[in-house]
Design a protein that fits this description.
alpha+beta, Beta Polymerase, domain 2, 5-stranded mixed beta sheet, about 60% helix
Length: about 350
């Protein structure tokens, strides 16, 4: 395990101080540091996320926020009964599995009831809802069918399919891993830490990220912002800056998530994680397409960004997207080795999925 970052150590020390105060209350059973602290991925601007498990069954689940030492702190309060319910999986959907992973793989600062070992075991052994994985596998099958077809006419279409294929492969592999699929900004790091280095490498290649360059990363962040805001204007959604100041709102929940993903890219850049910043910025731009289809109630069968941009007919938008994802002049099609590795990873998904669910049948 790599040494703890200074930003992580600072937050852990603050978490211990907060825990010492909370420990005076006999109802407090556990204090868990979660989020970037638990993953040792803190930057100078990272929040401190804590979960406090309390014995009192009369409290409601809530989140309190405060600032100490210039640092934002969010504390989630859960009863033991509610925490155990989360750890048992519930619907085993994306949200539930993320929560279980967050608690089960968190750093226990206080553990009066010896919950850590049980939580960790539950988090590791949970499986996603079979229907959710089946849906992604169906998407993979559809993409694979198009990928091997020779009828692709649009320039860069096969590169686009590669990105879609690898995005879905990453989702399935991480959902079948205790890390789960948490946030776009953590995808590359989680794949690496989960032992999927080859997928990490292929995603970078498909996303046209060739170097760890601050200038290239900065350009992607700026381009993606312009692209996201232009897409937002088409749908009459608020600009990024407005959404970041306003925070989460139910009316613009999905759009807020896109804007915050772009903000994550900016934060990664400030932390000199240029490759991850580049990937996250480009991912945020791609997130606008399913949102666009959902907002317009489109009955289009294609979620391919190139097809959508063609229908929109805005040359400025298309130009920005091609600047984010340029088609290499000397390799207009992905090389056979990349396609073969992508297909191999898709088969790895199928095998893992079948093995995992066979064991519980």
């Amino acid at each position: 395990m790599p040494p703890l970052r200074q930003a992580t150590l600072t937050r852990l020390n603050l978490a211990r101080n907060i825990s010492c105060s909370l420990e005076q209350d006999p109802r407090v059973l556990a204090v868990i540091a979660t989020g970037s602290v638990a993953r040792n991925r803190c930057s100078r601007t990272s929040d401190l996320d804590l979960t406090v498990i309390i014995a009192d069954q009369g409290i409601r689940r809530s989140v309190t926020s405060e600032t100490r030492q210039g640092m934002a702190i969010d504390i989630e309060w859960l009863t033991k009964r509610r925490a155990l319910s989360i750890m048992k999986g519930g619907k085993r959907d994306l949200k539930g599995l993320r929560e279980a992973s967050r608690l089960g793989l968190g750093v226990f600062i206080l553990d009066r009831d010896l919950l850590e070992a049980n939580f960790r075991t539950l988090a590791v052994n949970l499986l996603p809802d079979r229907g959710m994985i089946e849906q992604r596998m169906a998407a993979l099958s559809h993409i694979l069918s198009d990928l091997v077809s020779k009828k692709l006419k649009q320039k860069g279409a096969r590169w686009e399919l590669c990105r879609a294929l690898l995005d879905n492969v990453a989702f399935v592999l991480l959902m079948l891993h205790p890390f789960r699929y948490q946030k776009p900004k953590w995808v590359l790091a989680d794949l690496r830490d989960a032992g999927h280095d080859s997928l990490n490498s292929l995603l970078r290649k498909a996303y046209r990220i060739g170097s760890d360059s601050s200038n290239v990363s900065r350009r992607s962040i700026e381009l993606s912002r312009r692209f996201i805001e232009e897409m937002g204007r088409l749908m009459k959604t608020p600009p990024i800056e407005h959404m970041l100041k306003k925070g989460f709102t139910r009316k613009y929940a999905a759009w807020s998530y896109i804007c915050r993903t772009w903000e994550d890219a900016e934060s990664l850049f400030q932390d000199k994680a240029f490759i991850e910043a580049n990937f996250t910025a480009k991912f945020a731009a791609r997130m606008t397409f399913p949102f666009y289809l959902g907002e317009l109630g489109s009955n289009s069968q294609s979620t391919n960004p190139l097809h959508i941009l063609e229908k929109i007919g805005d040359k400025g938008l298309s130009s920005m997207y091609l600047q984010l994802f340029p088609v290499p002049a000397n390799h207009p099609e992905p090389d056979q080795a990349m396609l073969r590795k992508s297909l191999d990873l898709a088969h790895v998904c199928w095998n893992l999925k079948q093995q995992a669910y066979r064991e519980i049948s």
